[in-house]
C-alpha cells in the first residue's frame, strides 16, 4: 500500500502539526461546546456575540448553533477585509477568453456588493425573500450572492447550464420574485443563451416580478421585456455604494441550493448563517492551509456547493484572493489550468476527479513547460478519486511536492467533512483519510443498522453528531429532510454513501449505497472496480453497475470510455475484463464490458450510474430511445444530465456490443 508523508515547505509553517491536530480533534469531539466556542469567536466577526454554542440534534432534526448570536456573512467576507486591507485582491476573474483576466480588490468588492444590495432593495427584496441567480461563473455571481447575504435575502443559485424547465422548477419551488441573469454566457468559446432560457422559464413563473440582466456579451438580439427586465449596468451603477449590513440571527437561512441530482430528484438544501460560514472558514484555513497572501484556485462553478463554499464564502471570509474561472479545462487547449496556475501564482488548486481523469487521458505533454511551483495544496472533490488518477495528480501536476487533499463532503454538509490535513496527515491514494474537526463518523451494517466498531470494517457511512455547517432542512419540506437523512438510522445523519474503514482507521468512500454490487455474496463498491479498470493503459474513464443475474444474484457490467489506439474491440473488452479479474479477483470478473464514447454525467461532472444500470439491464430499449418521452418514462428525471443526447447513444451502443 502506497503512503505519502505530508510535505513540508521551506519557510512556510502550516497552521497545524500532528500534535496540535490530535489535541484539537479530540477536543472537538469530546467538548464541542468549548472547541466551537473558541473557533466561532476567533474566526468570525459577531455583531452580537453568542452565549449558547450548540443545541438540538439529529433525533428531532432541530440542530442549531450559536443560537443567540448575530452576524452578517457579507460583513465577514467583505467589510472586515475592506477595512483592514482595502487594496488587497479579493477576486481574480479568469474569463473564458484567455488573457482577459481582471482583478477586484476588497474595497471594490465592497462597493459592488453594496450597490447591488441597494438594487435588490429597490426591487422590494426583503430579509427572508428568495432570489434566483442564474449567472455564468463571473464575479457578478459572487457579488449577487454576497448582496443577498447583506440584506438577509436567501439566494438560490441555479447552475447556468440548466434547461428552462429545470430553471422554472427551481424558481417555482422557492417562489422567487427576482431573478438575476446575463444576456448570454461564454464557456469554452461557445455561447449559451441564458436570457432566452430564463425567459422561457419565467413565462411559467407568475411569482417573478423583476429580472436583472447583466451584459456579458452585449449581443443585440437578446430579448428584453421592459416592464419586467432591467439592465444591470443601468440600474446597479446608479446605486449608492454604501449599504448597512442587516443583522442576521445565526439560524436565519443564508441560502438554498439544489443537490446535483445524481440519485434522483434534486433537493433544495437549506444552509444557515453562522454555522455554514464557520464551516467554510475553518475548512479553508486548515484543509487548504490558507495564509494571507494565498491565491485560492477552486475550478468549480458557483452554481454548485463547491463554488459557494470554496470560491465565494470560505476564501473571502479568510481574506485571500479567490479565482473565478469562467471557462473549461480544455479551452483553448488542455493546458488552460496550468496556464492559469502559473499566471496567477495559484497556491491551492481544487478540482474534480472527472477533470483530472480527462486531462490525464489527454497526455502529459500539455503540462510541459509549466512551472506549477506556486501550488502547495492540490484538492479533489465530487467523486471517489481512483488511485491511478490520484498518483497522476501527485506526480505530474504536483511534481511530488504538493499536499494532495481528497476531500469528501456533500451539498448537505456545507463544508468538507473527511480529508487529509497539510502538515499532518499521511495520505493513501484513493482514501479521503480522516474526519475533520467536529465530525464524528460511524460505519453501520447496512442490513441491521448496527454500528460496526473498530477498524477494518465496511458499511454505510453516518455522521454521529451535528457539526456547525450541516444543512438544517430541505426548503419547504422538512419531512423530506427527516426522511432522507435522519430517519433511515435514527440518531445519525445518513450520508447515502458506502465506506470502508481500514486497519489504520482511514476512510475510503465506496460510492453510493444504492450503487453497491453484490455478486454471489461478495459486496463490491463501484469505486473499487472502476479503479481497477482505470489501471488499464487504454481506459480513460469507467463506470460500473450491477445487473440482476440468475446465478450470482447480480453481475457486473462495465462501461468504459477509452483512449484512442486500439484495433480490436473484442480483444480490448477481454483485456479489460482480465484487468479486473487480476486486480480484484475472479469473483469480480465483469459479465460485460461496453466501450462507449462518453459516460452520462451530471452537470457537476458526476457519473449517473442509475442510467447505466437501466441500460445494462435492458430496462430501457431502442424502442424507448426513439423519443424523449420514451426515455423519460423509463429513466425518470434526467434534467441534471450535462448532455442528454448521450442516453440514446448509450442505448444504441449497448445493443450492438
Ligand atoms: P443527489 O444527492 O441529488 O443525488 P449528489 O449527491 O451528486 O446529488 P452533491 O451533494 O453535489 O450531490 O454530491 C455529494 C456526493 O458526492 C457525496 O455524497 C459522494 O457520493 C460524492 N463525493 C463528493 N466528494 C467525494 C470524495 N472526495 N470521495 C468520494 N465521493 C465523493
Ligand atoms: Mg447526494
Automatic annotation (TrEMBL):
- Any idea which UniProt keywords this protein has? ATP-binding, Ligase, Nucleotide-binding
Q: What is its EC number?
A: 6.2.1.1
Which InterPro entries does this UniProt record tie to the protein? Ac_CoA_lig, ACAS_N, AMP-bd_C, AMP-bd_C_sf, AMP-binding_CS, AMP-dep_synth/lig_dom, ANL_N_sf
Kindly indicate where the leader peptide sits in this chain: none
**Occurrences of domain AMP-binding enzyme C-terminal (ranges):** 528-606
The first-level EC class reads: ligase
Q: Which reaction does it catalyse?
A: acetate + ATP + CoA = acetyl-CoA + AMP + diphosphate
AMP-dependent synthetase/ligase domain: from which residue to which, for each copy?
Answer: 79-469
Q: What superkingdom does the record give?
A: Eukaryota
Can you give the residue ranges of the Acetyl-coenzyme A synthetase N-terminal domain? 21-77
User: Has UniProt tagged this entry with the keyword Glycoprotein?
Assistant: no
Matching Gene3D superfamilies: 3.30.300.30, N-terminal domain of ligase-like
* Keyword Nucleotide-binding on entry: yes
Q: Which family does it belong to?
A: Belongs to the ATP-dependent AMP-binding enzyme family.
List the Gene Ontology MF annotations in alphabetical order: acetate-CoA ligase activity; AMP binding; ATP binding
Q: Which NCBIfam families match?
A: Ac_CoA_lig_AcsA (TIGR02188), PRK00174.1 (NF001208)
Native source species: Boothiomyces macroporosus
Which GO biological process annotations does it have?
acetyl-CoA biosynthetic process from acetate
The record's GO CC annotations read: cytosol
Name of the protein = Acetyl-coenzyme A synthetase
